[in-house]
Amino acid sequence: MADTVPANQNDEVKALKPSRPLVLTALCLFSFVYSGILALLMITALFYSGTLTRIVEKYASREAFLVSPVLIFLFLALLFSGVFTGTLLIWRMKKTGYYVFGVSILAITIFQLLSPQINVVATLADVGLLILFGFFFRLLR
Q1: CA–CA separation, 85 vs 80, rounded Å?
Q2: Does residue 95 surpass a pLDDT of 70?
């Protein structure tokens, strides 16, 4: 009787062990905040694109707007929502999350590189997040 271990004691031990490393948890939290705020800003910009367009046209050349700003904001809102979804799946330790995250980040990076008014630091931050999450790819299921 002394050698028997209750079945739920193993479950308690598993519950005490963290399911993801601390650094991955910090990256996920940063990415949640980063992508969530940017997705909300892009959705908000959809509703105020007329005002935003007038402000930007005042300071930028007319050639910078070959495509409708509404389409740009919708496209970016969808991509940042993809980044948020990918981060959520990575939080749950799913490999598909890294793929969703990676495709969204690469699409955002291509857009940022083609847009002359986007700061290079933002592009480097996106690529840096992708690389940092890549270090934990083997831990994902």
Answers
A1: 9
A2: yes
